[in-house]
Amino acid sequence: MADIFGQALLDYQSGNYTEDIKTFSSLDEEDTIPLPYLFRGFDKMPILEQKALQLAKGKVLDIGCGAGNHALYLQKKGMDITGLDTSVGAIEVCKKRGVQNTISSSILDYTNVKYDTLLLLMNGIGLAGKLTDLSSFLQHLKSLLSPNGQILLDSSDIIYMFDQDEDGGVWVPNTGKYYGEVQFYMEYKGKKSLLFHWLYLDFNTLQNACLDNNLKCELVSEGEHYDYLAKLSIRS
Q1: End-to-end alpha-carbon separation of the chain, Å?
Q2: Residue 168: what pLDDT?
Q3: Is residue 28 a part of any domain in this protein?
Q4: Of 155, 172, 162, 146, the residue nearest 207 (C-alpha)
Q5: How far apart are CA 236 and CA 227, in angstroms?
Q6: Has residue 172 got a pLDDT over 80?
Q7: If we measure between CA atoms, which residue out of 138, 121, 128, 136 comes closest to residue 60?
Q8: 74-87 confidence digits (pLDDT tens)
Q9: In terms of Cα–Cα distance, which of 188, 101, 205 is closest to 153?
Q10: CA distances in angstroms from 62 to 52, 152, 158, 179, 181, listed in the order given
Q11: In a domain, 19, yes or no
């Protein structure tokens, strides 16, 4: 599979920035991911991301670390931080930017190490893919947590993308699956990625899934546009 995301990051890092990543989704929307945004510093991060980084403690794993923005910030604060990404290009960029500890792996293939904080930012819980896979995903994250560890994640309730009727009700198509399940592919410099599944979770659904998996789920903060930051921990 072509590492389109990694190639875009490498191009930007090497000063070869000519276009952004295009994304196409099952929501019938074409969008772009501006490459400069993927290299932002702390001051340009959304408030929820800043809050998550301020709450990070102990030994930290940044899951889906991308170009390493979060890892670099925590590293500069003297924290024990490791960046993990499936994208080989992303990990190469992290190393070029000075991230000291990196892992090139899928989170589901990564085992046997315990962390005090797992970061899943920029809607990182989306990696679960589908609602039916959320429980096994949460169980795997739990297996990477130290006894008093925490998972910090942000997500969005995409209910706002569906039509509202006059009394404020929302018309969600009856597709037989959860409305936050979206399929994407990316395009960059004429190359397309494979189709992949991504999960946007409303907070109540996350809470219920946590309850089923013996996890405590706290709402830390809400953003301005149906987004939120949550903290998960193992129930004692």
Answers
A1: 42
A2: 57
A3: no
A4: 155
A5: 28
A6: no
A7: 121
A8: 999 999 999 999 99
A9: 205
A10: 11, 10, 24, 27, 23
A11: no
Q: Residue 227 carries which side chain, given as an amino acid letter?
A: D
CATH of residue 139 = 3.40.50.150
Tell me whether residue 6 is in a domain.
no
**Predicted confidence (pLDDT) per residue in 60-107, tens digit:** 999 999 999 999 999 999 999 999 999 999 999 999 999 999 999 999
The domain tally of the chain equals 1
What is the reported pLDDT for 147?
93
For residue 24, give every residue at least 6 positions away whose Cβ sits within 8 Å of its Cβ, in sequence order, or none: 30, 184, 185, 186, 187
What is the C-alpha separation between 138 and 87, in angstroms, rounded? Answer: 22
Q: Which of 6-20, 116-130, 163-177 bottoms out in mean pLDDT, i.e. has the lowest?
A: 163-177
Task: Answer whether residue 153 is part of any domain.
Answer: yes
pLDDT value for 225: 84
- By residue range, what is the domain housing residue 120? 47-157+202-234
Strand partners, 136: none
Q: What is the pLDDT of residue 223?
A: 86
Q: Report the 3 state secondary structure along 109-140.
A: HCCCCCEEEEEECCCHHHHHCCHHHHHHHHHH
